[in-house]
């Protein structure tokens, strides 16, 4: 069952990536990011209110938000710091790079998760999993060669380094999620609510220094329908992902790989919607990544 939940998460993540590209294109990154996280927070807020004033009804719906100790709040705040840093880097990169380059690089995230799962959680890969992960990495290398034809030199482009950093931080957060869900006993909605709350606070601090004081930047921001859509789709994807992680048999390295199937939506639909270059050539490494994911599922 947890694999099907992972595929549902991948579906909503793929739609989330398309909306995210629309939201940041030619727009101010930090207020867009704040708007998306705030939208997700507002989506979950009624469940928090229901948990305080209508606990029985909220429990019956399956969305009760538990009271947690301060030590657990500290663990969630660490996750918010990691993901806020990852999103800031990722949104800046997405603003300056084609989605058909950004998304496949992000697809290397399972490799970092894979290494962490072996050494931290002692998850044991088999031969098919090894082949699948290295096939994903090789396919990402092929994307780098195609990127040069679009004037994107991977060694000299700072936005490439930004998206690589965002990928590493995102993978670290994925490993941390297993700790929060399986070892701290958090349910998905409790983790999502407090994570969004602390992330909003972190972003507000950043904007106080980087956006609010500058009139030109405030004027450059354009509100778009895709901003709240990003937040809603992300929280939906995260809910299914965290529900999958609640299964004691769920392997984080396989879930991380399954989520990469979102790139089918991002590369194919994104290439058509945003009219990006070399779509046919990008399908070759895309197939490589999908075969890598298929091998992991088969294993």
Question: Which features does this protein show?
Answer:
299 residues; mainly alpha; 14 helices
How would you describe this structure to a colleague?
The protein has 299 residues and is mainly alpha-helical. It has one domain. 79% of the residues lie in helices and 0% in strands. It has 14 helices and no strands. The protein is globular. The two termini are 16 Å apart.
List the helices and strands and how they pair.
Blueprint: H1 2-24, H2 29-53, H3 55-61, H4 70-96, H5 99-106, H6 109-119, H7 127-148, H8 158-183, H9 188-210, H10 215-220, H11 226-245, H12 252-259, H13 263-273, H14 279-298
Spell out the helices and strands N to C: HHHHHHHHHHHHHH
Question: From the alpha-carbon coordinates, what is the Rg to the nearest angstrom?
Answer: 19 Å
Helix content: over 70%
Structural class: mainly alpha
Q: Please give the largest β-sheet.
A: none
Topology, number of strands:
0
Short description:
Helices cover 79% and strands 0% of the residues.
